[in-house]
Specification:
Helix content: 55-70%
Bound molecules: ligand C2E, magnesium ion
Number of strands: 16
Shape: elongated
Radius of gyration: 53 Å
């Protein structure tokens, strides 16, 4: 904005209304000292003439958005000035000029509070009517009636009572400006005051005329005052800002609110009553004395009732709205209840519903079974194809299972890829048959988003038994499911007590294993790795054993799985690593340059600090990284996803330092050959199940040869496990297998026995 613009704006901020009010106040105060030259004198004419420019100036200064009312007011003022000029010329009988001013003023006052909003056209009339009606009764009873109806004094100008009557109407309209919530302003207050001043002026004039006089001073001053108030209102800045608050049209809580109505309605009849009593005591009551106050009171009461009806209507509208929102809420609650009981993806009932079904079946003593199903390798599909494909696959699986579920049974979705069905009133054979149908249905490939996916299921079945609790049935079914998974997936396992016993045994093992490191119950045995070319020992594999106090030695097969399940393998594996590194580093210091092979469980590779842990073991033991071989199973590296990526990162870090990696039990797992080329590995350990038992077994021999050739082609070292005979050793040497390990050379032995067992043989690094 330019400086000129700022100056112009500052100019508009001048308080014109104050100046105008001040100047007019001087005129008002001076009026009593000016001798009147007629009923409406020159001072009044001038003052009225000044109001018109004041209105024009106000409109220009404040530029109200809604100006229709103000324009009509301006027209009314100009009309009044013209009437005042013409009055002396046309008199007598020129009063009609004044009458005709009223419709203009009335329209202006009716339009002003509307502010361009339709909803406010009729707002506030009842309230304004009630208040003005009450005031009118008092005004009539105390002021007008005694004069108008006094037959002795009734002059021919009695008709001028019409002016104050019209003023009462104007006053009522002006009250509305103060009653419509949100539009009240100083400007409107001044306009209401103006109508009151008019009423005062015209009433005083009427009283004076009836008494045989002219325009009294009170009227002169009040007319002037009304002009002053109107001009000031137009110049006051609030004339532009009056805007109804949105949505407030119904909250007609005007000045004084309810209290005003009560006072009006109560005071009016009381005052009227007092007056009538007074009249009666003074010799009779005439008809008009009763008709007018009673009529006005009746009008007021009617208006009050109308207002009550309006409030009732508003209340009813609110009640309807409330009813609507209540039923909407009920609907929402229904939806929520459905959501709470159903799975959002498949729309199948959820775990809660399944619980209820199991509980109901048990309570009814029903035969039947709970079958829990879990997709095989679902995580892998999610990782490889993304969750959208995973979701669609779940939908497709749910669809196939649902087709087979008998009537009256419910298929529920438990967790991401877990489903369950409670079959009632069926024997275990029928339930097993249903499970088998699930298995064959899911063996057919699924076509999902143009992918052909294989997703079999594993099933756990638990017969219903009224003696059981719901939680027991679920627990047993899950146990059977895990057994099905462990047994190779894509099959159904029925719960048996043996499963629970096994599980308990594992729990007990875990319990006992928990403190095994602290109690010093773990020991490491070492089995030599022999170079076939010259049958010299190049290294040892560290193999853990558990020696509980007073008990027999427990082989790893009996506790490694439990340690993996419980996570205990992490501290145990770290302990073995440290131990093996220390022992082998000690042998190296004695002049035996052996390498240490240490088994690493997949669970250990999931630890974010695995690589750091290994490097720490090397540093503290002083074993060169090149003397450490980590044995991992192929499953660790074949799956996709973040866990595998982390495992690969660990191995890459360690290989960069010189540590070597061997794939253990090669040939028993996924046997995907592609990963041998891409993954960070150095050696392949051929599983002992490939060792041919005798001269026969040409298939096994062919397989071992294929593995050795493949590894050689990829420049990977080969180690054969489980070599028990000289014949096997000779066969492996013939194939070009580098190293061998097995009972033929030595069983795993305690550290102290290893060197003794190999005394005389020279170790080769
Ligand atoms: P593995 O890593 O494949 O170890 C070779 C297993 O074959 C050892 O069984 C060993 O005693 C056995 N073995 C060696 N030569 C012969 C043979 O000529 N004939 C036969 N039939 N078996 C032979 P062990 O010591 O019972 O260990 C079993 C498995 O336990 C190991 O298989 C390994 O997977 C796991 N394991 C052992 N120690 C640890 C360890 O510290 N950490 C982890 N995570 N797993 C370990
Ligand atoms: Mg091993
Ligand atoms: Mg092995």
């Amino acid at each position: 904005m330019t400086e000129g613009g700022v100056a112009a704006r500052a100019g508009t901020a001048r308080p014109w209304w104050l100046w105008f009010a001040g100047a007019m106040a001087v005129v008002v105060v001076a009026t009593p000292f000016i001798r009147p030259s007629g009923p409406r004198n020159a001072a009044e004419l001038t003052a009225a003439a000044v109001v018109a420019p004041a209105l024009v100036l106000g409109l220009r200064l404040h530029r109200p958005r809604y100006r229709l009312g103000w324009h009509v007011l301006l027209a009314a003022v100009i009309y009044t000035v013209v009437s005042n000029v013409l009055w002396p010329v046309l008199t007598p009988g020129a009063d009609f000029l004044y009458y005709t001013t009223y419709p203009l003023l009335g329209v202006a006052l009716a339009v002003l509070p509307v502010q361009g909003r339709r909803s406010l056209w009729f707002a506030g009339y009842t309230e304004a009517g009630i208040i003005a009606g009450g005031a009118a009764v008092v005004w009539w009873t105390l002021l007008v009636d005694p004069l108008v109806l006094d037959p002795g004094r009734l002059p021919d100008q009695a008709h001028i009572v019409v002016f104050p009557m019209l003023d009462v109407l104007l006053f009522a309209l002006a009250l509305r400006l103060l009653l419509v919530a949100g539009v009240r302003s100083v400007a409107y207050l001044l306009i209401a005051a103006m109508t009151f001043a008019l009423l005062t002026a015209d009433t005083a004039f009427f009283v004076s005329v009836v008494a045989g006089g002219g325009a009294p001073m009170v009227s002169q001053v009040s007319w002037l005052l009304s002009n002053t108030l109107l001009g000031t209102a137009a110049l006051h800045p609030s004339m532009a800002v009056a805007q109804p608050a949105p949505g407030d049209a119904e909250t007609l809580d005007g000045v004084g609110g309810t209290r005003v109505y009560i006072v009006t309605v109560v005071a009016t009849p009381i005052l009227t009553g007092i007056y009538l009593l007074h009249e009666a005591m003074n010799g009779g009551v005439n008809a008009a004395d009763i008709v007018v106050p009673v009529g006005a009171t009746a009008l007021t009461s009617a208006l009050v009732v109308t207002r009550m009806r309006q409030i009732n209507q508003i209340a009813r509208r609110h009640a309807v709205a409330l009813q609507e929102s209540l039923s909407r809420q009920e609907e929402l609650q229904g939806e929520l209840r459905h959501q709470a009981q159903h799975d959002s993806l498949t729309g199948l009932p959820n775990r809660e519903v399944l619980y209820e079904r199991i509980t109901a079946a048990l309570a009814a003593g029903s035969t039947g079974a709970l079958i829990v199903a879990d997709l095989d390798g679902f995580k892998d599909i999610n990782d490889r194809f993304g969750h959208a494909v995973g979701d669609d696959l779940l939908l497709a699986v749910a669809g196939r299972l649902l087709e087979l579920v008998p009537d009256g049974s419910v298929l529920a979705r438990l967790d991401s890829d877990e489903f369950a069905v409670v079959v009632r009133d069926a024997d275990v054979v029928a339930c097993t048959r249903l499970g088998e149908r699930f298995l064959s249905a899911t063996r057919e490939p699924f076509t999902v988003q143009a992918h052909e996916l294989f997703a079999t299921v594993s099933l756990g079945l638990r017969e219903l038994d009224p003696e059981l609790l719901t939680g027991d049935v679920l627990r047993d079914a899950y146990l059977a499911l895990h057994a099905a998974k462990a047994a190779g997936r894509d099959q159904l396992t029925r719960w048996t007590p043996a499963l629970t016993e096994e599980k308990l045994a594992v729990s007990r093992t875990v319990e006992r294993l928990r403190g095994a490191i602290e109690r010093d119950e773990l020991v490491v045995h070492y089995q030599p790795l022999i170079r076939l070319a010259d049958e010299r020992m190049t290294g040892v594999e560290a193999l853990i054993r558990w020696q509980p106090a007073g008990g027999p030695m427990i082989p790893p097969d009996k506790f490694i799985a439990a340690a993996e399940d419980s996570g205990l393998i992490v501290p145990i594996g770290t302990w073995v690593l440290h131990r093996a590194c220390e022992v082998v580093a000690g042998w190296q210091r004695l002049g035996h340059p052996l390498a240490a092979s240490v088994n690493v469980s997949p669970r250990q590779l999931r630890e974010p600090d695995f690589a750091a842990l290994v490097l720490d073991a090397l540093r503290t033991s002083g074993l060169p990284p090149a003397s450490l071989i980590l044995e991992i199973t192929e499953g660790v590296l074949v799956a996709s996803g973040a866990v595998t990526e982390q495992a690969i990162r660990h191995l890459e870090t360690l290989r960069a330092r010189g540590v070597r990696v061997a794939i253990d039990d090669f040939g028993t797992g996924y046997s995907s050959l592609a990963y041998l080329r891409d993954l960070p590995i150095d050696h392949v350990k051929i599983d002992k199940s490939f060792m041919p038992s005798g001269a026969g077994d040409p298939a096994l021999r062919a397989m071992v040869k294929a593995i050795v050739d493949l590894a050689a082609g990829l420049r990977l070292g080969t180690i054969a496990e489980g070599v028990e005979t000289a014949g096997q050793a000779a066969f492996l040497r013939e194939l070009g297998c580098e190293r061998a390990q097995g009972y033929y050379y030595s069983r795993p032995v305690p550290a102290a026995d290893l060197l003794t067992a190999f005394q005389g043989r020279k170790s080769v690094f």
